[in-house]
Design goal:
The structure is a homodimer. By secondary structure, chain A is of the alpha+beta class. Chain A has 6 helices and 7 strands; from the N terminus they run ααβααββββαββα. Chain A binds a DNA duplex through α2 and α4.
Chain lengths: 142, 142
DNA sequence: ATGGTTATTGCAAATATTCGCAATTGTATG
DNA sequence: CATACAATTGCGAATATTTGCAATAACCAT
């Protein structure tokens, strides 16, 4: 479960500079118990210091995603949601009719992960993925 | 394989009005052999008539996605890609390190589809999904 | 401690997408 | 055919995200 110190160590090891801005942003993310939008992270950071720019938030999130330390997920709300591994693994099922979001158990992805690695050498990030479709209610109607 | 007439019939049956704008937009999508971004669809439509607004393109795409007639996919390029069922089913595997996009066979999703339906009553749209992770090259390095 | 290098940042602008609203128009009804 | 209703549209503005650039600063070597 990555905490702030763990995250900064990994990033330093990979050649990134640990700036004050990044420590604050990583602190905001690490202290959250749910995934957040960029705007929510920005608001949390602004509560601490108003000098950090929203562009820096986006750049830091992009860095975390590229390093596999966070996931960027589209839940159909018009903004992306970000989660680290401390937020646990699960699938977001989003109904394209009513917008309901159902959290599904991660185990359904085990076979998929195995076959993508075996067939393509591809190691998917499946800790937080979102799948669109029809919920039980709307699946019955269609 | 939905063509223009097929698409308009489905939409009319579901209570949508078939406007001239929609026919042109659907025509642009139906005559494409690959998924396109909203900007690409807009450019194709502009080649035919310059009166259709980009907001109308987005509204039409949202309608198609909500009705399950198109999929909205994030390939990490900074814009969403849209595909209909005529574009065939496959998985887009996007490397978060180098951005490479690998098309994987759809069969890996069969079990997932079955278990989501059985366990949650959720019918996922899996014709075009994108999964981020590490390609064979970068998976070896990590 | 100092200087150099280059990664990083704030800011403004640009891009992709969505929203509010008044005007337009497709469809249904008489 | 005419009318009414409400869905749809164009337009401008707003929002979410990304980009370019000059200034700043983290890190390393001396």
């Amino acid at each position: 479960m990555p905490n702030l110190e763990h995250l900064t160590k990994i990033l330093r090891d990979r050649g990134y500079r640990i700036t004050a801005q990044r420590e604050i942003i990583l602190g905001a993310i690490a202290s959250s118990d749910d995934h957040m939008s960029a705007e929510e992270i920005y608001a949390k950071v602004q509560a601490r210091t108003s000098t950090i720019d929203i562009a820096t938030i986006y750049r830091t999130l992009e860095m975390l995603v590229e390093e596999g330390l966070a996931c960027k997920t589209n839940l159909g709300t018009g903004e992306f949601m970000y989660a680290t591994f401390q937020h646990g693994s699960h699938i977001h099922l989003i109904c394209r009719k009513c917008g309901a979001v159902i959290d599904a158990d991660h185990s359904a992805l085990a076979k998929l992960e195995d076959s993508l690695l075996a067939d393509y050498g591809f190691r998917p990030d499946l800790q937080h993925i979102s799948l669109f479709g029809l919920c039980a209610k709307h699946a019955q109607k269609g």
